């Protein structure tokens, strides 16, 4: 008889940059009986998901859907639907995921410009304003919560600068949605995408996405077909609207999970969710300082759900992470790019943002650092 590797999966406290821990209610939802993707009862669940996404994103956009794929599929879908060859795209870069936006836009034949900011610091609005006054761009793109650095970028301020222009404003909220406030309409955002595996506390596999009327108009006015059939929103939208035209087989059980995850957030209340994330962040920072650890990002720009901690001089950060995983069953993340080997990334996202989780991690870190 074959050994079933699934039997060896341990319960790990996920406190890295994602995925986050999943609530029991979401696991239960995932295990519900699978329905057909055009079953009339499943269509009701789809409508419920859309309504809850509108509330969570603070938008009234008709084209608001979960893309079948991870957050990176949301990124790809946003660019592939809105960019045509020769379009001028400005990407504001202060971490890995801004770099990824640049790569995706360039592959589509865009004329990509970047504004680069030091990793661990936010995008500077005045620098952006000067750039957009000097040049016309079809799209300006930015990461709201840069997962590689723990920095919160000034998305609302940049959106205000773009108001009244024909430039589309594209924002990544993969780590921010469900952890801090996101106000798509008020911030003048035209294309927004996220992922289920961060503050929404659903397993990876879906990418909530929303397009404004302005973005939909741009999509419908394309001179060429969307080059990616699977992510073509002009086709996907007809499955999620009243027409219910089959496009691809929806991941039914994953959508059950997203439905339940959004329901839990809205039952707790968005403001209460944000307060919980901030409270646990502050407890974590205080506890880290007590054991001699410092934060990478200055206080006004820190994300409550993704904390970047400077590794002490002479400490092998990967060995600390291995001990946390092997001895204490806790996962945290390491640095990326120029921050590799220099920081730890500690996630307090969704169901992983609990007081008992913070205490457990702090106690484990203290023991390891005392015995290394």
Tell me what the structure shows.
The protein is α/β, with parallel strands linked by helices. It folds into two domains: 5-19 and 270-371, Aspartate Aminotransferase, domain 1 (Alpha-Beta Complex); 24-266, 3-Layer(aba) Sandwich (Aspartate Aminotransferase, domain 2). Helix content is 40%, strand content 16%. The chain has twelve helices and 15 strands. The chain has helices spanning 24-30, 40-57, 71-82, 96-107, 125-134, 155-162, 213-220, 233-240, 252-268, 270-290, 317-328, 355-371; strands spanning 13-14, 63-68, 88-93, 111-116, 139-143, 145-146, 151-152, 168-172, 191-193, 206-211, 294-295, 306-310, 330-331, 333-334, 343-347. Strands 2-10-9-8-5-3-4 form a seven-stranded mixed sheet, sandwiched between helices. A four-stranded antiparallel sheet has the order 11-12-15-14, with helices on one face. Strands 1-13 form a two-stranded parallel ribbon. The termini are far apart. The model has no long low-confidence stretch (mean pLDDT 97).
Keywords:
alpha/beta, Aspartate Aminotransferase, domain 2, four-stranded antiparallel sheet, 12 helices, about 40% helix
- What kind of sheet is the major sheet? 7 strands, mixed
CATH fold-type name of the largest domain: Aspartate Aminotransferase, domain 2
CATH architectural type of the largest domain: 3-Layer(aba) Sandwich
Which structural class do you get from the secondary structure elements? alpha/beta
Overall radius of gyration:
21 Å
CATH superfamily of the largest domain: Type I PLP-dependent aspartate aminotransferase-like (Major domain)
The succession of helices and strands, N to C, reads EHHEHEHEHEEEHEEEHHHHEEHEEEH
Gross geometry: globular
Number of strands: 15
Strand content: 15-25%
Q: Count of helical segments?
A: 12
What strand order characterises the main sheet?
2-10-9-8-5-3-4
Q: Tally the structural domains.
A: 2
Mean pLDDT level? 97
CATH class of the largest domain: Alpha Beta
Task: Enumerate the spans where pLDDT stays under 50 for 5 or more consecutive residues.
Answer: none
């Amino acid at each position: 008889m074959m050994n079933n590797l699934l039997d060896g999966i341990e319960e790990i406290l996920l406190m890295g940059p994602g995925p986050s821990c999943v609530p029991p209610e979401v696991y239960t939802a995932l295990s519900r009986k699978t329905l057909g993707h055009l079953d009339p009862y499943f269509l009701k669940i789809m409508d419920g998901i859309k309504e809850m996404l509108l509330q969570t994103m603070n938008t009234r956009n008709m084209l608001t859907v979960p893309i079948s794929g991870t957050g990176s599929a949301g990124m790809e879908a946003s660019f592939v639907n809105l960019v045509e060859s020769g379009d001028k795209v400005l990407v504001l870069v202060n971490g890995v995921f801004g770099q990824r936006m640049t790569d995706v836009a360039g592959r589509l034949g865009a004329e990509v410009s970047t504004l680069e900011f030091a990793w661990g610091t936010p995008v500077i609005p005045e620098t952006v304003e000067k750039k957009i006054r000097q040049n016309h761009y079809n799209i300006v793109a930015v990461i709201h919560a840069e997962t590689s650095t723990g920095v919160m970028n000034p998305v609302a301020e940049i959106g205000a600068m773009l108001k009244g222009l024909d430039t589309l404003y594209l924002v990544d909220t993969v780590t921010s949605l469900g952890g801090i406030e996101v106000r798509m309409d008020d911030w003048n955002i035209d294309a927004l995408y996220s992922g289920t595996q961060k503050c929404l506390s659903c397993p990876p596999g879906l990418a909530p996405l929303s397009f404004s009327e302005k973005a939909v108009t741009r999509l419908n006015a394309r001179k060429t077909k969307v080059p990616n059939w699977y992510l073509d929103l002009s086709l996907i939208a007809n499955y999620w609207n009243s027409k219910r035209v089959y496009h691809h087989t929806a991941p039914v059980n994953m959508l059950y999970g997203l439905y339940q995850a959004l329901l839990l957030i809205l039952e707790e209340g968005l403001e209460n969710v944000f307060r919980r994330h901030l409270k646990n962040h502050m407890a974590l920072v205080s506890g880290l300082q007590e054991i001699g650890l410092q934060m990478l990002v200055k206080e006004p720009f820190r994300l409550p759900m993704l904390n970047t901690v400077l590794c002490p001089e002479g400490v092998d950060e990967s060995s600390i992470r291995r001990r946390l995983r092997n001895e204490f069953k806790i996962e945290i993340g390491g640095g990326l790019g120029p921050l590799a080997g220099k920081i730890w990334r500690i996630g307090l996202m969704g169901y992983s943002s609990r007081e008992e989780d913070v205490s457990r991690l702090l106690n484990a870190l203290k023991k390891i650092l005392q015995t290394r």
